[in-house]
Write a structure and sequence with these properties.
Bound molecules: adenosine-5'-triphosphate, magnesium ion
Radius of gyration: 31 Å
CATH topology of one domain: Ribosomal Protein L25, Chain P
Number of helices: 12
Distance between the termini: 47 Å
Helix content: 10-25%
Largest sheet: 7 strands, mixed
């Protein structure tokens, strides 16, 4: 396995790494094989990103391998589009799976033969109770289940019925194949779980070849074993399924017996980590699609401007454990911001313009300004100054609050990369709104401090004649509460934040005019932005998505 990523920081220790260390030290394994096993029934989300970083990251750190395997046993919900998006997302995150993509459906014939082996051993039987009846027989957490009349069928009868299930002689749902384990087990998963069901559905890989499909628990352990997985890592809700994982592998003729380890699922506050719920947001058009920049999907985060490096760093910071992993969005935003801080060139944009006329300046002036204070190699561009400027509306206050350092009537500020400017007059419309400022500059302050007085505030501006219009998309949290799906009785859509997207017509400097899609910038004082992957057209239609705001709106940087 190879990856673009070589971690600068050593990976944090966790209980899975301790297990691997011990397995390698004892000689139980010489190298490790992990897998990432998504079901192609939706786009991957931030929780999957954690699992990807864990599985591929372990393989990378221990010089092992990691497979990508699609768990494609639910044909009605799966699609090629999802499978392709998943591969793209894994690669974009910086990982590459070992060899070809694997599919559980590659093993359908072997899975079928193993089921016959179980029948032959008296360890599986065909059930014809209805689903309701099966539920009644199953018992409850406090009451043991009872044996179904089908449990005592002969091996010969089971073989015959199972073959006829495969041949399509029975209606969907009319029968299932069950493992014969223990109807009184305190673990409900061990009460003769169904391992095959009849479902006439077109499958993205096997077409109409099969009308019976193996169940997840049965498929997963065998797929792991067939691929020689050493450490099968999954989320905590599968802990109670582990005895079944082991039971299946203990009772079929297969040499490899991977071990399953569970870690806690990532929950990210103010958003959702469930494909089913994200699909609902897409289907009900609460968002523009799976890659809407407000979505916690990998493709949404990418379109929002998050970097693969930042997401990997986030994943490293949240760690891997068995305890609750309900994470504050600030941890994600911090990781993204830190990554962008060093790599994004800094330019100027105005998102809420206020016109400024300079009454004592004629003609034109340009100054050279670097793209990044700590990275001279990023180069520089020319910043024009003229008598008609745009500044941010909220950099002016007619009645300034205490401690105000920006513009106010009669007050002075420094214009970034340029002069000190004084506001002489605020022009208002009929409703009393300030629509323009008349200002004058101190000609002696170009790149120099004024004599005899201190000017504290620094604001940014664009020259009207040189500014380019741009669509700027500002994002806020998708939900108004930290855990929108906490209450099963309440539809999480009720908590959608109506202000999660604001589109404004703003202005940018000419230096960004030909930026390709997915180019990242810091708009000074406003945040990190990325040109939209879909809608931005270089040189024609400029569309910027705000990735994340800046922590500090302004540092004391001098022009
Ligand atoms: P969802 O509930 O969103 O559909 P899933 O677990 O059903 O998720 P899979 O496609 O089966 O989705 O998941 C592939 C892998 O990603 C599994 O190993 C699963 O454990 C892991 N995974 C899914 N969600 C999370 C999460 N929130 N945190 C960590 N790992 C996750
Ligand atoms: Mg699943």
């Amino acid at each position: 396995m190879s990856s673009a990523h070589s971690p600068a920081v050593p990976p944090a220790s966790n209980f899975i790494r301790s297990i691997i260390d011990a397995d390698l030290a004892s000689g139980k394994h010489n190298s490790i094989v992990t897998r990432f096993p998504p079901e192609p029934n939706g786009y991957l989300h931030v929780g999957h990103a954690k699992s990807i970083c864990l599985n591929f990251g372990l393989a990378q750190d221990y010089r092992g391998t990691c497979n990508l395997r699609f768990d494609d046993t639910n044909p009605e919900k799966e699609s090629e589009e999802y499978a392709l998006s998943i591969q793209e997302d894994v690669r974009w995150l910086g990982f590459q799976w070992e060899g070809e993509v694997h599919w559980a459906s590659d093993y359908f014939e072997q899975l079928y033969q193993f089921a016959i082996e179980l029948i032959n051993k008296g360890l599986a039987y065909v059930e014809d109770l209805s689903p309701e009846e099966m539920r009644t027989y199953r018992g409850t957490l406090t009451q043991p289940g009872k044996n179904s009349p089908s449990r005592d069928r002969s091996v010969a009868e089971n073989l015959d019925l199972f073959a006829r299930m495969r041949n399509g002689e029975f209606a969907d749902g009319a029968k299932v194949l069950r493992a014969k384990i223990d109807m009184a087990s305190p673990n409900m998963n061990m009460r003769d779980p169904a391992i095959y069901r009849i479902r006439r559905a077109h499958h993205i890989r096997t077409g109409d070849k099969w009308c019976i499909y193996p169940m997840y628990d049965y498929t997963h352990c065998i797929s792991d074993a067939l691929e020689g997985i050493t450490h099968s890592i999954c989320t905590l809700e599968f802990e109670d399924h582990r005895p079944l994982y082991d039971w299946v592998l203990d009772n079929i003729s297969i040499a490899c017996h991977p071990r399953q380890y569970e870690f806690s699922r990532l929950e990210l506050q103010y958003t959702l980590t469930s494909k089913r719920k994200l699909l609902q947001l897409v289907n009900e058009k609460h968002v523009s699609g799976w890659d809407d920049p407000r979505m916690p999907t990998i493709s949404g985060m990418r379109r929002r401007g998050y970097t693969a490096e930042g997401i990997r760093e986030f994943s490293r910071r949240i760690g891997v454990s068995k305890s609750g992993n309900n994470v504050d969005m600030a941890i994600m935003e911090g990781a993204i911001r830190e990554d962008l801080e060093a790599r994004a060139p800094r330019v100027t944009a105005i998102i809420n313009p206020l016109r400024v006329s300079i009454t004592n300046f004629d003609g034109a002036l340009t100054r050279e300004a670097g793209f990044h204070p700590n990275h001279p190699e990023f180069g520089s561009r020319v910043v024009p100054f003229s008598s008609e400027l745009l500044i941010e509306t909220d950099d002016f206050a007619e009645v300034p609050p205490a401690g105000w350092k920006r513009l106010t009537p009669g007050g002075e500020v420094r214009l970034r990369h340029s002069y000190v400017m004084r506001c002489d007059e605020a022009i208002k419309d009929a409703e009393g709104r300030v629509i323009e400022l008349r200002c004058s500059i101190d000609h002696a302050t170009l790149g120099k401090n004024p004599e005899g007085r201190k000017v504290k505030g620094v604001i940014h501006y664009l020259s009207c004649a040189h500014a380019l219009p741009a669509e700027i998309r500002l994002y806020d949290r998708l939900f108004t509460v930290a855990e929108p799906d906490a209450d099963r009785e309440v539809d999480f859509c009720q908590f959608l934040n109506p202000q999660s997207l604001t589109v404004v017509q703003g202005w940018v400097e000419a230096a960004v005019q030909h930026a390709a899609p997915e180019t990242r910038y810091q708009f000074e004082r406003l945040g990190y932005f990325v040109t939209d992957r879909r809608d931005h057209q270089p040189g024609a239609k400029l569309v910027f998505n705000r990735t994340v705001t800046l922590k500090d709106s302004w540092t004391k940087e001098q022009s």
